[in-house]
């Protein structure tokens, strides 16, 4: 499993995940549990949806 989520992508996933969880709590809905998906993908730095379309948001270091 090669990492394919960069720093900015992680921050966005955390914010979206927390917002979904809070919305689920606010509306008393189990749908808030879906907020765990972006948080987990941010923690492991790997998104399964990026693999088939070959996307990586990690900045590549230029050789010196």
Explain what you see:
- There is one protein chain.
- This protein has one domain (1-59).
- The protein starts with 6 loop residues before the first helix and ends in a 20-residue tail after the last helix.
- The chain has 64 residues and is mainly α.
- The chain has 2 helices and no strands.
- 12% of the residues are buried.
Number of helices: 2
**Biggest sheet character:** none
Strand percentage lies at under 5%
Mean pLDDT rating: 94
Element-by-element helix/strand order: HH
The count of strands amounts to 0
Radius of gyration from the CA trace?
A: 14 Å
Coarse structural class: mainly alpha
Helix share, percent: 40-55%
Observed structural traits:
64 residues; mainly alpha; elongated
Outline:
The chain has 64 residues and is mostly helical. It has helices at residues 7-26, 36-44.
């Amino acid at each position: 499993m090669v990492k394919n989520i960069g720093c900015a992508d992680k921050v966005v996933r955390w914010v979206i995940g927390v917002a979904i969880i809070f919305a689920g709590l606010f509306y008393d809905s189990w749908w808030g549990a879906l907020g765990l998906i972006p948080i987990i993908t941010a923690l492991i730095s790997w998104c399964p949806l990026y693999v088939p379309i070959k996307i990586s948001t990690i900045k590549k270091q230029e050789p010196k």
